[in-house]
Amino acid sequence: MANSTEGANKNTALKAGGHSIRASYDTERDALGLGINAWIDQYMTDNLAAPPKEDYAEFIEAYTDITERAERIVREKEQKRREKRQAKEEKRQQRERERRAIVDKFLLDLEPLIDEPYRGLAMKKASTSFRTFDTPFIEDLVNPWVRSNGIINDNTAIEVAEKANEVLRLFPKLLELDFLSDDDAFEKAGKAFFREKFPNVEALFNNTSSFWSNGLNSKFVDLLKDGQSFKAICSLERNDLSPLLLATEPTASRSSTHLSSNSRKSLARRVWRKHWDHLDTDSSFDSTKNTLAFQASHNYIGQIFAKLDRYATWLGQEEKIADEDRRKSMLNEIVNGYYSQTLDYFMEQKDFELVKKYQTDSAFRFDEIHRMRGQN
Fold first, then answer.
1. CA nearest to 258, candidates 327, 201, 198
2. Are 352 and 308 in contact (CB under 8 A)?
3. Could you give the C-alpha distances from 269 to 189, 237, 265, in angstroms and in order?
């Protein structure tokens, strides 16, 4: 306690001393009639032997001159850098304008060299900024000069046009579909399907099955030039001829009372993928394999439609599911809902009671899905 009191007394004494000194300085300054800054200068001269302010003039002048010179040098260097960057950018832009003029002339020279029946279709400009032409293989042909700064000379347009015309002249023969036989069920159906899909060359260029392009890409061209017409025309549909399967399935119409249009299309795609993966892997056209796959696809999708019909009838009996909309929803869920195993589970089960439980009991469905995954 005594130490605390002693410390407090010392602090009080120091504060009192500080106030006394400050009061003394204030009295002295007031007696001299000086402002605070002038009095500080006077105090430093009288008490600290500091030279008067005037003696600093030469140093201040020299310091100011050096500082201004340094700042000027920095500004001049920055200005030179800006001018150099600007000159470089202007030079780049000039080169780009010159290059663009050469490319524009090349494309202008190319267009009249394309065969007349296809010219407007093949040379249609793309609607996106990252491509020049709408048709992929035309884009691939001009890319080395349009996008990759290849050297363009007087013969470039002629050489590109010859390559484009070589491909374009194969289109009429492709659309004759002579590579498909009228004596085979699948090939006859395929011929009818493709004739409806591509009645003329314009339809090839306007094809939308590949989403972002018409599908006339380098892969299609390579297959066509290699004589693999069937694989070439299938590639325009991304090797998915499920609409052909659906159109030729005699039992498909009965399912329309239960399944939506999207569900029928989805089911046809699944069945097609199940039996037609060889279209992606086989190097040549195999008529026998295609015919067998077509028959297997129809057998399988026919079994599915027939079982869906029986399940729909069973759901409606004794009001197991009284609401008709709910029954339709459950039938569509088998094709589209839950996980990919749902359709497999439906086809595997002989007891519709288990199918109904799978669809209405989430815990049971979870266990069954894990069981099937374990088996796979």
1. 327
2. no
3. 17, 12, 6
Would you place residue 154 in the very low, low, confident or very high pLDDT band (cuts 50, 70, 90)?
confident
Place of tokens 């590639």: 235
| Count, residues in the chain | 376
Helix (H, G, I), strand (E, B) or coil at 125: strand
Whether residue 376 has pLDDT greater than 60 = no
Half-sphere exposure of 204 (CA within 13 A, CB side): 24
* Confidence (pTM): 0.69
Cα 171 to chain centroid distance, Å, stands at 31
Helix ranges, the chain (H): 2-32, 36-47, 57-110, 119-122, 136-146, 156-168, 171-176, 185-197, 201-205, 218-225, 229-235, 242-248, 261-275, 278-281, 287-316, 324-336, 341-348, 352-360, 362-375
Output the CA angle 305-307-309, nearest 5 degrees.
70
Distance from C-alpha of 109 to C-alpha of 152, rounded to nearest angstrom: 12
142/107 Cα distance (integer angstroms):
9
pLDDT one-digit tens code per residue, 318-362: 667 778 888 888 999 998 865 667 888 899 899 999 999 998 898
Query: For 333-339, which contacts have Cβ atoms below 8 Å and span 24 or more sequence positions?
Result: 333/359, 334/308, 334/359, 335/259, 335/263, 335/266, 335/267, 335/270, 336/262, 336/263, 336/266, 338/365, 338/369, 339/369
For residue 13, the model assigns a pLDDT of 44
Q: Is 216 in contact with 137 (CB distance < 8 Å)? A: yes
Euclidean distance between CA atoms 335 and 132, whole angstroms: 41
* C-beta of residue 307 within 8 angstroms of C-beta of residue 335: no
Q: What is the DSSP letter of 114?
A: S
Instruction: Tell the residue number behind the tokens 């088996």, with chain if given.
Output: 375
CA 169 → CA 208, 229, 253, distances in Å?
22, 14, 40
